[in-house]
Amino acid sequence: MNAPDRTVQERPTRLARVLRVIERAGNRLPDPVILFVVLSLALAALSAVLAAAGLSAQVPGQDEVTPIRSLLTGEGLRFALTEAVPNFVEFPPLGTIIAVLLGIAVADRSGLLPTLLRVSVLRAPRRLVTPALMLAGVCGSVASDAAFIVLIPLGAMVFRTLGRNPAVGAVAAFVSVGAGYDASIFVTATDVLLSGITNSAAAIVDPSIQLTALSNYWFSVVSAVVIAMAAAVVVDRVVEPTAERTEEPDADGSAGADAAGPEAESAEAAAARVSPEQVRGLRDAGLTLLGALVLYAAVWLPPGSPLRDPDDGTLVPSPFLDGIAAVLLLTFLAVGIAYGLRVGTIRRPADVPRLMREGLGEIVPILVLFFVIAQFLAWFTWSGIGQWIAVSGADLLRTLGAPAPLLLLLTVLLVFVLGLVITSGSAQWSLLAPVLVPMLLLVGIEADQTMAAFRIGDSVANSLTPMSPYFAVALGFLQRYKRDAGIGTLISMTLPICVTMFVVWTALFLAWVSIGLPLGV
Fold first, then answer.
1. Any idea what DSSP says for residue 67?
2. SS3 category, 57
3. String of b and e for 42-75 (b: at least 16 CB within 10 Å)?
């Protein structure tokens, strides 16, 4: 009877009340597709009002004045109708994200990525288990959402095996994947997606800007290591010492860590199982990756290479970087095939396109979202509202005289707050980028810096919002070891880790920008 009583006592706390408000607000938001349909209709109405007011904008450095045009005129309706398909087909992230996911699908469904995540934690020395778990989680976004499914039970199992609190292991894995989602030592599909949306937004004031999946790469690599190590320190020295020990079974065997019974054990065992053949598969994949890197260096680095810039002979920019999506496709494809051939998940040539088809089936929701986002962004640009907001906002920022680091900090905070209720990173960046990127460009803040600021706020919010589907997964694992755990319990364990990652990551970013280091390639 004590467990229900403790649950009731959590309800009236201030934290619980705040969380309920956030949860109710998030539940009232429609599906992202419906949200952008509504926003597009609102944009059309707003364009009519602003056009009737005769508003216009002149982007610095451009001679022509851009008037706001109404989407509710004959011209606007013709644009919306005739350009709907081109808007979708030419949407910058569309082709690149599909190409990269073709390769990731083979690497994932052959078993390479899940096995890599397991081995990176299980083979770590005992004192490095927590840092290895956190780094694997931060870099786990290369496997997309599968990282949550693999690492949450794996974290619980590893901690339990070491005689540590398994609930803390599960929570640590959850936070590392969610709060570090947009940082990685690997190039991921998220990098391709964010750069494409950023390019579309930057084109509102400067069509010459062309970011790639590597535009934040150096910052992302350093961020992954730094925030993983900082989070590991907090897990070991703050969260685990203050967390209640998992309950021992009662006399009837119904309480505590064993309450989950065989189901929990089988989930943990499945998450941890790595066979000798899988280890050999990882070796083959590693050798294949090494060979691919040597090949890329041989065809890109030598002077006179056709993959250097044809005019200046530079490495950055160059055709090699312009085609980074194809490079990533071939790389993931090669290492996935090498692993699959060794472990038997790929036995014949036809298995490769089959894995591609299976993987692409998971991005159908993304394609639906892309269609409506592409229309919204195209309408936003055509109407001239984007230019007007960018110029007006930039003028206001100049009047305030706020330094660039402060503006970037405010951007991080804005993204974080919105991320608590808009859990789709692509939907949130598609909404914010057309406003933030051009506006900050006009006050001297580069588009890659704004994109990096988005990464921080979006990632950390992932592990604090009850709107995330994996919040419920983490809560479920927590309740296996602490039956009376509620949302407040999970937040109390995630908050110290998330706050540390947020502060350290933001400080790193502001220092990086202030020094003037390149964020990527």
1. E
2. strand
3. ebbebbbebbeeeebbebeeeeeebebbbbeeee
pLDDT < 50: residue spans in the chain: 1-12, 248-262, 264
Hey, what are 378's tokens? 């195209």
Q: What pLDDT does 14 receive?
A: 63
**What are the pLDDT digits (tens) for 455-508?**
999 999 988 887 676 787 788 778 788 777 777 778 888 889 999 999 999 999
Report how far residue 384's alpha carbon sits from residue 68's, in angstroms, rounded to the nearest whole number.
5
330 burial (CB, 10 Å; 0-12 / 13-18 / 19+) is middle
d(CA 201, CA 434): 4
Q: Which residues contact 453 (CB under 8 A, 6 or more apart)?
A: 408, 411, 412, 415, 509
* Cα–Cα distance measured from residue 429 to residue 199, given in angstroms and rounded to the nearest whole number: 12
* Amino acid, single-letter form, for residue 301: L
Q: Are 103 and 355 in contact (CB under 8 A)?
A: no
Q: How far apart (Å, rounded) are the C-alpha atoms in residues 405 and 409?
A: 6
pTM listed for this prediction: 0.77
